[in-house]
Amino acid sequence: MGFQEDMFLSVNLLPLYAKCFGVAQARQSFDEMPCRDVASWTMVMSTYGEIRDHEVALELFGPMLVSGEFPNEELEPSFTTLLPNDRTGVAPNEFTFVKLLSASSFLGLNYGKLVHAHLMILGIELNLVLKTALVDMYCKCQSMEDAVKASKLTPDYDVFLWTAVISGFSQSLQCREAIAAFHEMENSGVIPNNFTYSGILNACSSILALDLGKQIHSRVIMAGLENDVSVGNSLVDMYMKSSDTIEDAVRAFEEIVSPNVISWTSLIAGFSKHGIEQESFKAFGAMQAVGVQPNSFTLSTILGACGTIKSRTQARKLHGYIIKNNAYNDLVVGNALVDAYAESGIVDDAWRVTRTMKHRDVITYTSLATRINQMGNHEMALKIITHMNDDLRMDRFSLASFLSAAAGIPTMETGKQLHGYSLKSGLGSLISVSNGLVDLYGKCGSIHDANRAFREITEPDSVSWNGLIFGLASNGLVSSALSAFEDMRLAKVEPDKITFLLVLYACSHGGLVDMGLGYFHSMKEKHGIRPQLDHYNCLVDLLGRTR
Fold it and tell me: Which position among 94, 111, 157, 398 has the lowest Cβ density within 10 Å, counted as fewest Cβ atoms?
């Protein structure tokens, strides 16, 4: 018997061909097989999934159902139009559907639901492995309602299924549901594993639940998993985000036996978040010294630290590292480098990087425009619009940034053009854009238009109210500004430190000393906001008007 006629051997050679010679050679070997069974079809789907060519993996499903064990190359049905009763070929099994569900989770919910439909119509038995793959697909597509329904299709549960549900809730920012699922899992007698603990710790990070995170940490220690890299990474991230200090995060990092690039990136990001950027740079050097190479997220994180402290020297050092290590063509890194230069005030270098980037997206231009606008060069920020070609349409973030720049120039022409674009593009209904319009018209003195833009917001947030109050106060309408502040409180929108700065400004310019003092004292007493230097400056100005 020759190699090509031995189906078992041919199937097992597929992953070897893919690993040694590439997927094209594996596909050629598959195409030359005179007889293909379910294992060979599933294996080639898995091969495409491993190289993240998920569309091809799904497209193989149609030919599998009709070409059978003896291929008929004339039949090339589409995956999305194929009906199960058309099949005359190889019947898929539960392992085939595990691969199909994995591929569809990267392509979107509609693909996943189509695979689920085929699974049901073909009457494939839903064992625990297949159910877990189904739940995981819905979780990755952030359709948690479908994920929970799928998990209840059979009574069987294990740690992998529970972990998929908990991680899905966490990734969908439904953190309380993730915690509830974790407790339900424990009550059912299923023992969490390292990935379960990682998922629940990520949920704690999202809602800054430090006390709960510490409780989970104690359970991790009792389970003997404190040295596990995935758990350790989640502990570092949780402590850095939830705690006011870095000590617990550093201890958690030191417990990891072999920190990987995610461990180091979490540490670097945490140092930067806590305002100790120099420690970020030290950690960046230390990770390379122990042989761990930074990835695009590490580089974007450390570049963010450069921008925060406006370190031109560090930005240029990192730029050299990026060129030396061929990371220049990575879009995430390129955008971070543009932002670091622009935030450090080196606009020429930021533009130079932008022009040399192979690929640019809307984030590239948005970050550049935002930084230039923050420097007070509003007209230059607006000129960036002309550099965005037809393929790069403004999104809500870029439009909000350009509206902010338009609010800083004397004429309203550009602002009105941007308003028109927001209506045509449908972005005007988004709160970030609506807030930009309120701010624009308020700063330009068009209070009627500012009020109208504000009224069109379905649920105004603190930024919306702040924009309205500022517009009214800066145009001398002190009484209306304070009335808007009271309306804000009646709407149960919590004022922030900027709100009180605007209210004190209004009281100062209206000569309302007693009212201003009352608002100042209420900051901490009623709202728990500690006054900052700007508030005290405004208070001094207020009291100075009594003389």
Answer: 94
CA distances from 157 to 100, 165, 320, 362, 496 (A): 22, 11, 51, 44, 45
Identify the DSSP state of 426: T
Tokens matching residue 167: 């991680």
The whole-angstrom distance between residue 141's C-alpha and the CA centroid of its chain comes to 14
What does the alpha-carbon distance between residue 547 and residue 536 come to, in Å, rounded to a whole number? 18
Q: Which has the closest alpha carbon to 473: 501, 432, 436?
A: 501
Report how far residue 418's alpha carbon sits from residue 396's, in angstroms, rounded to the nearest whole number. Answer: 12
Q: Count the neighbouring beta carbons within 10 Å of the beta carbon of residue 87.
A: 18
Local mean pLDDT, 10-residue blocks, the chain (547 residues): 48 55 61 68 75 79 69 47 53 85 89 89 89 93 92 92 93 89 92 93 90 93 92 95 94 94 96 94 95 94 90 90 87 93 91 90 92 93 85 88 92 92 91 95 93 94 96 94 95 95 93 92 91 92 76
Q: Which of 73, 38, 13 is nearest to 4 (CA)?
A: 13
- Cβ neighbours around 521 below 10 Å, total: 11
Break the chain down into helix, strand, coil percent, rounded to 5: 70, 0, 30
Q: Helices marked H in 152-193 — which ranges?
A: 159-171, 175-187
Q: What is the pTM of this model?
A: 0.78
The answer to whether 475 touches 445, Cβ cutoff 8 Å, is yes
CB within 8 A of 362, min separation 6: which ones? 388, 392, 393, 394, 395, 397, 398
Query: What is the C-alpha to C-alpha distance for residues 253 and 184, in angstroms, rounded to an integer?
Result: 29
Classified as helix, coil or strand, 90 is coil
Angstrom distances, CA of residue 452 to CA of 30, 435, 481, 502: 65, 12, 15, 20
Three-state SS for 480-522 is HHHHHHHHHHHCCCCCCHHHHHHHHHHHHHHCCHHHHHHHHHH
Q: Shortest CA distance to 126 belongs to which of 156, 166, 147, 89?
A: 156
